[in-house]
Amino acid sequence: MTSPHAALAARLGYAFRQPERLVQALTHRSFGAEHNERLEFVGDAVLNCVIAATLFDRLPGVPEGDLSRLRAHLVNRDTLARLARGLELGTLIRFGEGERKGGGRERGSTAADALEAVFGAVFVDGGFEAARDAIHAVFADDLARLDPAILGKDPKTRLQEWLQARRMPVPEYAVVEVAGAAHAQTFTVECRIAGLSIATRGEGASRRAAEQGAAAAAYAIVSSTTGVSDHG
Amino acid sequence: MTSPHAALAARLGYAFRQPERLVQALTHRSFGAEHNERLEFVGDAVLNCVIAATLFDRLPGVPEGDLSRLRAHLVNRDTLARLARGLELGTLIRFGEGERKGGGRERGSTAADALEAVFGAVFVDGGFEAARDAIHAVFADDLARLDPAILGKDPKTRLQEWLQARRMPVPEYAVVEVAGAAHAQTFTVECRIAGLSIATRGEGASRRAAEQGAAAAAYAIVSSTTGVSDHG
Q1: Active site residue: B113, B116, B125, B211, which one?
Q2: How close A48 comes to chain B (CA, Å)?
Q3: Among candidates A150, A66, A78, A65, which has minimal Cα distance to A111?
Q4: What are phi and psi of B102, to 5 degrees?
Q5: pLDDT tens, B130-155?
Q6: What's the CA gap between B199 and B194, in Å, rounded?
Q7: Contacting residues for B193 by C-beta, under 8 A, at least 6 apart
Q8: How confident is the model over B104-114, as a mean pLDDT?
Q9: Backbone angles phi, psi at B87, to 5 degrees
Q10: Chain A positions in Cβ-Cβ contact with residue B41 (cut-off 8 Å)
């Protein structure tokens, strides 16, 4: 492993048992030898699984539909290309000559694919928990917006302050469903932000818990959509 | 946990630390209380990840496109509904009264969703490896077709015998690409089966290795598509 590879491994917080797996993750198909497409297949699946599990843990009151939507915000070509740029992955990818001259190194999609392959390589080399930790390291800033400890204040307060600081309208909360028998009711609350066409839901055993869930989902979406982080 | 729940847990090969998670996985939204949709979100992601990793391990010469296709064969609503029936999941699901009277228990899609939620519950309760083992237990017959130990003979021989036993045409192999420098060439071979409109690919450092990869992918597809297992 060359020293740029070692630097990348350090940023992933992972030491490869078989460093050639990292090299393979950074080998474009055009190079010919063992390339990264199979590792990308695994990495894509691992990434989606880790982000799903993380959202499940950190956003307890948020229903499936909003978790799905949030995952799509967090895991997409643009985000992966941006994160790959931050890791300077492009400079490490091995290309065939034609592809290299054709500007392969500058294509964000190629770097995004390689980043998924890198996560796949960590998984194949070290297992699920190693991959989860590497993904959490790379997505640290993006996931910080979901972290209750970093959010600090409760999600409703946090969302309101975030919107007010940007002179945006305050959110409105409405109970849209109360289901179940009296001893086991589930409240579903929708949080709407006029003008932003955002409507998220939260569920909980009380109206207040459901509101907090809906607010947490809305906060995660507005803060990731605008790309402005606010956890200082 | 009631005894049918214990029987299900036994078939998953997993003892829940918090058995209420299994109960939640078997609770339809119409029931009202903590229902299974969030667990289904996690379970779907875990299932896709486990199957991706399993295909990666068991089909070394098979390129990403065929791994993707195979996963879609293995993980889909029909397969999940069939497996859920085998586990008699339908009888364990808790419904709200309206849904129950409306025949919710008989809907395959509801049972398929619940099975994903069950995998999600194992993951949340016991981690990735517990979920992987449970998924492997439930998918044992479907995955057996991919297991080199069970395949026994090499994939090309196996495929040919399988087709001959059914009076189907023999497969044809063609090298479609040779990439890379002389010391690190990668062969891509396509395996076509006339009349079945199946064309799979294999890659490897030799033509023979690539043919075996393509044959393994084709065998997995024909045997799963026709629904006829042949590993006696």
Answers
A1: B116
A2: 6
A3: A78
A4: -80, 5
A5: 999 999 999 998 888 776 555 557 88
A6: 9
A7: B163, B168, B169, B171, B172, B199, B218, B222
A8: 87
A9: -90, 0
A10: 52, 56, 64, 67-68
* ipTM of the shown complex: 0.80
Contacts of A134 (CB under 8 A, 6+ apart): A12, A13, A14, A118, A119, A122
Measured over all CA atoms, what is the biggest interatomic distance in chain A, rounded to whole angstroms?
Answer: 69
Superfamily of domain A3-144: Ribonuclease III domain (1.10.1520.10)
Q: What was the pLDDT predicted at B228? A: 40
Locate the DSSP E strands across chain B.
172-179, 186-193, 198-204
Instruction: Name the packing angle between helices B37-58 and B108-126 (round to 10°).
Output: 80
Strand order in the sheet with B198-204: B172-179, B186-193, B198-204
Which residues in chain B are contacts of A67 at CB distance < 8 A?
Answer: 38, 41
Predicted model pTM: 0.80
Quote the pLDDT of residue B229: 39
**For B181, nearest residue in chain A (alpha carbons):** A32
Which of A34, A41, A74 to mutate: most B Cβ within 10 Å? A41
Q: What does the pLDDT read at residue A82?
A: 94
Report how far Cα B96 is from the mean position of its chain's Cα atoms. Answer: 31
pLDDT, tens digit (0-9, with 9 covering 90-100), for B4-18? 888 999 999 999 999
Domain with CATH 1.10.1520.10 in chain A: 3-144
DSSP character at residue A203: E
CATH class of B148-225: alpha beta
